[in-house]
Amino acid sequence: MRRFAEQVSVITGSATGIGAATACRFAAEGANVACLDINEADNDAT
Question: To the nearest 10°, the Cα dihedral for 21, 26, 27, 33?
């Protein structure tokens, strides 16, 4: 299901844990996701 198609989501703390899982799920649901975290290396991997 593409619940978030045409939507933009900003996820903070997206490098690991719940933030990373949320970012991946929103992307899978069709959202354009902006990932923000102080840990740049892990955030880039997300």
Answer: -100
Q: Supply the pTM of this predicted model.
A: 0.85
Token match 């989501």: residue?
A: 9
- pLDDT one-digit tens code per residue, 21-45: 999 999 999 999 999 999 988 888 8
Whether 42 and 16 have beta carbons less than 8 Å apart is answered as yes
Question: What is the C-alpha separation between 34 and 36, in angstroms, rounded?
Answer: 7
Tell me the C-alpha to C-alpha distance, in Å, between residue 41 and each of 4, 29, 35.
26, 24, 12
pLDDT at 1: 67
Cα dihedral 32, 11, 9, 22 in deg (nearest 10):
80
